Amino acid sequence: MPQNTYQSYFKSPIGTMELVATDVGLSSLIFLDKDITSDTITPPELRDAATQIKEYFEGKRTEFDLKLDIQGTEFQLTVWKKLIEIPYSETISYLQLAKRIGNVKAIRAVGTANGRNPISIITPCHRVIGSNGDLTGYGGGLWRKDWLLKLENKVSGRELFD
């Protein structure tokens, strides 16, 4: 049975984000490299997601309560589920993530799956860093990854990379 698709845009402090949902739940939340001016009303299916993202950027939300419709391979879904388990304002390495899925040899595949995450922030791929503590790889750009981590650490009162 075909799914309806709903789309909206959100102006965040670090750029425009595109939100896409199906009747099942949120399926995509990505940063765009250009501003999109949309005078359309946010569809009801995306209002809760837009509100929760806004609260996140305002420092008022540290956890999300949304239905998700994430599409990917079995391996990608396994990695993305482990991303959701990373607590707000904490970071782990790609190696630690590979260990959490039970396959330390899959570190490169974990990095690839992390990079293909379709729902940024909510599935917090920005919380995965290099083993040496360096910020590495982020589809939205490293400067956004740095900004998101600094926001979370400011809100939680933690030092970056505690």
Structural commentary:
- It is a single chain.
- It is built from 5 helices and 5 strands; from the N terminus they run E-E-E-H-H-E-H-H-E-H.
- It is globular, with a radius of gyration of 16 Å.
- The protein has 2 domains: about 5-55; about 75-155, Arc Repressor Mutant, subunit A, CATH 1.10.10.10.
- By secondary structure, it is α+β, with helices and mostly antiparallel strands.
- The mean pLDDT is about 90.
- The strands form 2 sheets. A 3-stranded antiparallel β-sheet has the order 1-2-3, covered by helices on one side. Strands 4-5 form a two-stranded parallel ribbon.
Summarize the structure.
Helices cover 35% and strands 16% of the residues. It has five helices and five strands, in the order βββααβααβα.
Q: Separation of termini?
A: 47 Å
| Approximate strand percentage | 15-25%
Largest sheet, if any?
3 strands, antiparallel
Q: What share of the residues lie within helices?
A: 25-40%
Global outline: globular
SS class: alpha+beta
CATH architecture descriptor text of the largest domain: Orthogonal Bundle
Overall pLDDT, averaged? 91
CATH superfamily of the largest domain: Winged helix-like DNA-binding domain superfamily/Winged helix DNA-binding domain
In spatial order, strands of the major sheet run 1-2-3
Quote the CATH topology of the largest domain.
Arc Repressor Mutant, subunit A
Low-confidence stretches: none
